[in-house]
Queue: 2 jobs
Job 1
Amino acid sequence: MTMDSSPRQNLGISAYSWLKRDITRGVFQPGEKLLMSRLKERYGLGIGPLREALSQLVAERLVVAISQRGYRVAPMSLAELADLYDARAQLEGLILQLAIERGDDAWEAEILAKAHTLSKIMEVNSPDELLDVWDTRHKAFHTAIASGCRSPHLLQVRESLFDQVERYRHLWLRETVFSEEALERKRQEHAALVEVILERRAERAADMMREHLMTPVPIITEVMTRRGLA
Amino acid sequence: MTMDSSPRQNLGISAYSWLKRDITRGVFQPGEKLLMSRLKERYGLGIGPLREALSQLVAERLVVAISQRGYRVAPMSLAELADLYDARAQLEGLILQLAIERGDDAWEAEILAKAHTLSKIMEVNSPDELLDVWDTRHKAFHTAIASGCRSPHLLQVRESLFDQVERYRHLWLRETVFSEEALERKRQEHAALVEVILERRAERAADMMREHLMTPVPIITEVMTRRGLA
DNA sequence: ACTGCATCGAATATAGATACTTGGTATAAA
DNA sequence: TTTATACCAAGTATCTATATTCGATGCAGT
């Protein structure tokens, strides 16, 4: 049988996924030194694959390498928060304008589908499950909108900024998802966004998108200050 | 003496620079398999540092990794050429609009300085030197314009697309720099661009920038077709 | 001609050797 | 007495070399 269930994934690639997840989830603090001995123990891997994974994360700016002095988790700061969200909002605005120019009927349908799935979340057992489900569907909704631009490379660049922002966004998620009031506001913003998009009002839609994406900034600033991360 | 002149750069980082250079310069063909034995021999390094360098290049999409089957140079295609240049033109347009909103007097001065340096190239000994000098100054000119957006992360994303496009751009360079006619046209486009930027006409400037950045596409398409790279 | 087996080559991982940095302590000078 | 510097020891990153595993190719046998 050639249908082997184990495609034998390269250990470096697995190490990459696990490390990325642990960094964005805050298992490793910003600025923290990533000791090879610790990582070896935690993931049960040799140094080689770990160095490979770390090299990739350096390229994605989630980890910084200091020559001959090992690796550290990239630091977080209020300045980076502001710039990262601004850059992302501007880029997403551009992508949305292009999507409105270039998107077809299937694109519109996909947006409506994802918006519906997002707005109707029920039957969740635990708060953590709510967070996971809402987050997944929220991402899917925004990705559906962006995909209309039909440019793989713009979408790739969008992904890259998204990965960098994820650590900050994670701080915001807990504050938002567990507040019925905040959740309701998001619901309204999304509905308004969909409406303007379907009317193909590019300029207005881009403005709304930029504004929508900037709303978490004050909240995250507050959380970071409170926790002394700034 | 603590002033050691050798900061003892990690071999992985050097390997990264050399490999990147050799890939963008076409020493390794698109799609070509990167044999560890070959690389070891060529750069005089062990496998470890090479794997590190390759991992970073994978994150930058210049190399693709096939699990358990080593690494290959990322393929080139007409489809990627078109999308890459489109994405870059759109992004650069956005950045220019922001730069015109946000740039100060020092920014304007820097643009004028770089434009002047670019337009007055003389005293070159060889054609290859002309290519190098012109390319360096051309990049500096465009970077000076972009830097006005004051967003490190947008500039970082711009760099990333630029690195990906460099292989294609290199094909175009030889066709343009060695033609006095093409060079003169570029000179005029740059002058017109500077004029509109200094007048702070954001919309018009962005349009011109997008158009300016798309001009190499037909030429590169022609070269690729001629050489059977498509 | 096709299938199964063996051999070869390449990628991957681990383990060990080397060289660097860092923190502490002791000594000397102010 | 205090401060600064130099030296020493422990820990850590980095590299090279070796072993293992996986895939591919060629040959032989049916």
Job 2
Amino acid sequence: MTVIFSKKCEIGLQAVLFLSTQNSNTLFNAHKIAEKVKQPKEFVSKVLQILTKSGIVGSKKGKNGGFFLAKSPAEVKLIEIVLAIDGKSVFENCVLGFPACSNDNPCPVHNQWGKLRDEAYLMLSKESLSDLKYKTLKKIVSL
Amino acid sequence: MTVIFSKKCEIGLQAVLFLSTQNSNTLFNAHKIAEKVKQPKEFVSKVLQILTKSGIVGSKKGKNGGFFLAKSPAEVKLIEIVLAIDGKSVFENCVLGFPACSNDNPCPVHNQWGKLRDEAYLMLSKESLSDLKYKTLKKIVSL
DNA sequence: CATATATCAGATAAATTTTTCTGATTTAAT
DNA sequence: ATTAAATCAGAAAAATTTATCTGATATATG
């Protein structure tokens, strides 16, 4: 099982993180990216299609084509990738699975989870891909 | 999609929370519990079997049988239910899905997520079912 | 213009998770 | 004893998610 994001989303995050460490003039095809993040090529390709539609990633068809970061790494936050792939339900639904969990009708851990959820959102919104670049490089190299 | 726990686990948490608001001398059969937490009877029954094996819930077979909290609500923490059903992988795996994420080989958000993960663990370990009783009652009534 | 190599779109397959079903066993009550 | 009502165990079905395949289209290059 994944932690809080879907597998799709994890792969999307990994792929974008990888792209952010590379010169955005250089294209990487799905095969190359899949190899870098050690994930199945077709799945990576599918996820990159989603991210292409949402404008985070750009693609070029045909020979010597591939994918690239469509925005400057300084402008992209991880939260964008999460929202584009998994949507916002992780940040809205009750952690215990109760329906209609809200301030007016809270579950037993509503406030505590609310705080953690907001901090998680912040964690993904605060730093840009360029802020994370050094750490990302170190991690990618180790894969 | 669920937030961080599986559906099994959500139902387990809800069922145990419900039981903790009731006199532990009284038995509730799967049908009744399912009705209370508004979830499919057979699924509730399956999850209660898991919790019975792990000793959190007790069961009595035969006519007038049913389930009950096997421990005092003052002794049970939500984390026990989570570990019994989903295991500890949520608290161990990399939130970005990278393999071998560790202090020696951290992902770009390793430390930040580590903090949140620990706080989530604490949130589930700190208060007992009896501490949560008032809040639980209020929520259950509203379902 | 022809060819090789990409993405892209959508269908299909496989795997996993969720849900339901069936039958066996247990037990209280008559 | 017999019966009714419950858990329990495991299989089966349905749904969802993950992964793969196929064919169409696009494009750089010779």
